[in-house]
Amino acid sequence: MIGFTMLDVDSVQAFVAIADNKSFTRAANELGSTQGAISVKLKRLEERLGHRLIERTPRLVRLSAQGAVFLQAAREFLEAHDRAVAALSSSRRHFTIGIAAHVAGPEVPTLLARLNAHDPGLTIEVRIDNSCTLLAAFDRGELDAAIIRRDEDRRDGEVLGPEHFGWFATPQFEYRRGEPLRLAALSPTCGVRAVCTRALDAAGIPWTEVFLGGGSSAVTAAVSAGLAVSTFSYRLAPVGTVEVSERFGLPPLPSSEIVLHSTLTDAKSRAALRTLAAAFKEHRSSI
């Protein structure tokens, strides 16, 4: 009978990861394992329960009817296990992570909540700033990890996904070619600002900055109010704006990569960070 079946924590964890990711590969990445090992753990759990939990085809991974029933209980089982383990620890672990402002989309709070559920014994301090500032802080040892836009002079770091940029303004924004383009840009230390101003200079397009040195919220406000054009990642462009490069004859912008830098050595903290990185990759792959 199922009521007397002994559940294996690793197997239940594998099942929940597959259910959340809808992918054996992404589940394996999240758990720092391999697809083969994840499959073996799922099979072991299904055999113990006497039910198929996951239906798998070449194109689709989804919960079976029994898997859908079991999922919430499986989450509660893992949460109880984590609380029990955390209760034996005399001190909470802590790490500080920097996330670049143009990377920190609306999904970040959800990802951090998911990480907290995965490891309730971990306290995460998050710092939001531009990539250049965060990379410098990471190099000085002020951050344990950083998720930033790749620096042109650095090839280290784990790639989490591509980042594509465009020129955005409101549909009502007016610009006459030959006149200086009203540009809302971040601080002079922002790498994205440097990319867009170099592109304008190379194309021979005059420009003038408004809200000079403003933060990301000031830039968003200026663009949303129809006062200026700015460069945004396609996934983070303000609501109500449109891409205007073709309309105004603005130069294409090079794509970049989002990378993870880390100096964490504690095994449990590294596992938590892998969970965050896997979730970040999953979100970006669905865009």
UniProtKB/TrEMBL annotation:
Entries under Gene3D superfamilies matching the protein: Periplasmic binding protein-like II, Winged helix-like DNA-binding domain superfamily/Winged helix DNA-binding domain
HTH lysR-type domain boundaries: 7-64
InterPro entries: LTTR (IPR050176), LysR_HTH_N (IPR000847), LysR_subst-bd (IPR005119), WH-like_DNA-bd_sf (IPR036388), WH_DNA-bd_sf (IPR036390)
Superkingdom to which the source organism belongs: Bacteria
Alphabetized UniProt keyword annotations: DNA-binding, Transcription, Transcription regulation
GO molecular function: DNA binding
Family statement drawn from the similarity comment of this UniProt entry: Belongs to the LysR transcriptional regulatory family.
Protein name: DNA-binding transcriptional LysR family regulator
Species assigned in the record: Rhizobium viscosum
